[in-house]
Amino acid sequence: MGDQSRLCSVWLGSETGILKGVSVTHKQAFNFCNTRQLSRDQEIRVLCWGDPTETELLLGTVDGTVKTFSTEKGIFTEVRRCGDPEEGCFTGLEVRNSSVLTCVESGKLRVWREDSSEPVSELDAGKNVCRMRQNPVHPNRVGTGGKENGLKIWDLERPETPVFTAKNLRDDWLDLRRPHWVRDLAFIPDCDKVVTCTGHHQVHVFDPVSPQRRPVLEAEFGDYPLTALSLPASGDSVVVGNTQGQVAVLDLRKGLVRGCLKGLSGGVRALQCHASQPLVASCGLDRFLRIHSLEDRRLQHKVYLKSRLNCVLLGSQELRGGAEGEDGGAEGEVKEEEEDEVWDSMERVEEDTTKRKSSSSEGEEKKKKKKD
Amino acid sequence: MDVTEVPVSQGSKSKKKKNNNKKNKMKDVSQEGGEGSSGAEKSESGTAFPPTFSVSEIKNKQRRHLMFMKLKQEKRKQKLQIKKQKRKEREALGDKALPKEVPKTIENQRVFDETTVDPEDEEVAFDEGTDEFSAYFNGLTNPKVLITTSDRPRGRTVRFCRQLATVIPNAHVYYRRGLALKRIIPQCVARDFTYLIVINEDRHVPNGLVLCHLPDGPTAHFKVSSVRLRKEIKRLGKEPTEHYPEVILNNFSTRLGHSIGRLFAALFPQNPEFVGRQVATFHNQRDFIFFRFHRYIFKNEKKVGIQELGPRFTLKLRSLQKGTFDSKYGEYEWVLKRHEMDACRRKFQL
Asked: Which residues form the Brix domain (chain B) (predicted)?
């Protein structure tokens, strides 16, 4: 198990409760679960890294437990109970210097220490929370949002009142109230801005520094609820996905669509961009993990994983073979072989006539060496 | 083709006829010679012909027609000859002959689908064993079906509904009365219905079908085409009886196909009454699902007779949605994306 888990660069949580690891370079997928003890209570809702070196994975399951998975050993090392399953599923799970933050649908945001079974602190983020995320730059800041529950940014050291509360949008041209429904949010790394996507197919950017509590940028994409978003490493754009499997890259300067990522056939559940490379991984109800390149928006990898997938997590190390085309699908390989043949034939001309007979086998050997 | 290079002149024509008596391969050489001679006669026409001469370049219509007919005959003869030759070879070789080639169809050239269900796969078995239909397949619930239509149905749709209700046991047809589907669904759940079928109508013709499994989904949306009601079917059997029919599901091989197959299977009670000798068939071919309803009879040990009872129709999956009907906020498990998914004609989804 340990050998397999060390290979994996993409981790996925499924609806059947299986933790899946995918090694993109070796084109292999592994299940890290005992298939005999499957049950729907074990459904994985959230995934996050347990430590900055990425040797531990934290999984939040539907029955209210948080499991720790060691990627070094390839086994589950710890199971602990974090809250009541009746309060709803996990909507967010984060790590803040050796304590664990959890948030459930009913809005209870709790901080858990390693040793105690009771939460250290607790705050109420309101009803129907759809997502809780931590600011990667300031780990004390977290953002929450949900249905009829606008974006709130909390400082965990002062849990009484939120640092920032979003104001509802202006009434529409019929003077009707516009409903809130934050489905996912992310902190833009360099500035304090927060980007959210809503169930009413809008993308909003909030700026907590400015006095304006309404979004500083409004954009729309498609006609169906947006379910997930992710920020690429390059900045000033955001990748959003909706319930029909339409994924698009939006520009955050003007809110225009830069391009769509094709190939998905079912609703998106989670998106994640790679920390350094221009790659985005998406998973959802169509049971596929797809990795697209953000540069040419082509599909790089597609892996069938047999269960509906809830969440995806990428490691920070480079996913090799994505853009280089070294093992980017069958087509890339074929092309390379053709090129090799071209080179082989050229070598033949240079070599002496006596060596000609063995040149073809030598060429093959060289090819192998190249691949190694 | 070699034959087309013959220029329009009497001399060459007669040569061509002679050539026809000979074998194919020799013809090229002799014809070239013929062409040269005709070119000498009519130098203008000979030089005017581009190297690829086609019959369509002949300006005289009657002449062109004549030549074209000749060309066709020639081709046909060649083809027959090759066939004959092949057959002779086959006969001569006897048992050693190469096996006959299987004709290429888009079904047997199908692109491999990685989601094809392996019956021994534990994970898929678990996924299917605990899905929304597990209660039915474990024998805990009996299907009860509500059939309704879009608002104000007209002739054909009404008849289609009624006939569908005779096929599906324990089905109730209700008038829609302008009610919203989202408001019907809780009422259906309260009355223990396990399915809601909504038939959509456009220009008095049924064209859509929403199949919603209750109480918690999934919902499938189909396009309905070529509906033939009982009256329109030739050699129709007598009215179907109240017996529970047997169900045949053909070719639902992928993971999506399995879900759709289970959706159809759960429409009918699990214990068919074989006394009724009635079969409902859902046959999937190239992602179109053909529905037929038959009665069979064993005439003797070898022969079986079947009789169609109707109605017959064709379905094509448009979308499969998780949860009960919610076209705006529901999450789709699969959506047909035209020009993206059907770009490859040999790729099938079901």
From this structure: 143-326
Edge-to-edge strands, sheet with A257-261: A226-230, A237-242, A247-251, A257-261
CATH code of residue B166:
3.40.50.10480
Task: Give the range of the structural domain holding residue B200, as residue numbers without chain letter.
Answer: 123-335
Find the residue in A nearest to B117 (Cα): A306
With residue A103 as reference, give the H or E element that holds it.
Answer: strand A99-104
Please say whether the structural domain A2-320 has been given the CATH code 3.40.50.720. Answer: no
Tell me whether residue B111 is in a domain: no
Q: What is the predicted pLDDT for the residue at A35? A: 64
For residue range A112-141, list pLDDT tens digits in order: 887 777 888 888 888 899 999 999 888 889
Residues B84 and B135 in one domain: no
Whether residue B7 sits in one domain with residue B131: no
Cβ B102 vs Cβ B108: under 8 Å: yes
Q: Which residues of chain A lie closer than 8 angstroms to B341, CB-CB? A: 265
Q: Residue A229 is which amino acid?
A: L
Which chain A residues are within 8 Å of B328, Cβ to Cβ?
A: 224-225
A20 vs chain B: nearest CA distance in angstroms? 12
The predicted-structure confidence for B158-217, as pLDDT tens digits, reads as follows: 999 999 999 999 999 999 999 999 999 999 999 999 999 999 999 999 999 999 998 888
Worst-scoring range by mean pLDDT, A50-59, A257-266, B246-255? A50-59
Is B340 touching A (CB cutoff 8 A)?
Answer: yes
Q: Which of B114, B127, B337 sits opposite A307 (nearest CB)?
A: B127
B345 in contact with A, Cβ within 8 Å: no
Q: β-pairing, B145-149 with B171-173?
A: parallel
| In contact, A256 and A304? CB cutoff 8 Å | no
Contacts of B337 in chain A (CB under 8 A): 245, 265
Report, as an integer, the average pLDDT of B15-19. Answer: 43
- Our CA-based measurement puts residue A42 at a distance from the nearest CA of chain B, in whole angstroms, of 13
Question: Would the pLDDT of A270 be above 80?
Answer: yes
Residues in chain A within 8 Å Cβ distance of B334: 265-266, 285-286
Task: Say if B116 falls within a structural domain.
Answer: no
Contact present, B188 and B295 (Cβ < 8 Å): no
> Which tokens sit at B11?
């001399």
Tens of pLDDT, residue by residue over A11-34, are: 999 998 889 999 888 888 888 877
B195 with B302, same domain: the answer is: yes
- Domain total in chain B: 2
Query: What is the value of ipTM here, to two decimals?
Result: 0.80
Name which of A30, A286, A290 to mutate to probe chain B: the one with the most chain B Cβ atoms within 10 A of its Cβ: A286
- Determine whether the interchain pair A227/B332 forms a contact, defined as Cβ–Cβ distance below 8 Å: no
Residues of chain A with CATH 2.130.10.10: 2-320
Here the tokens at position B199 are: 């038939």
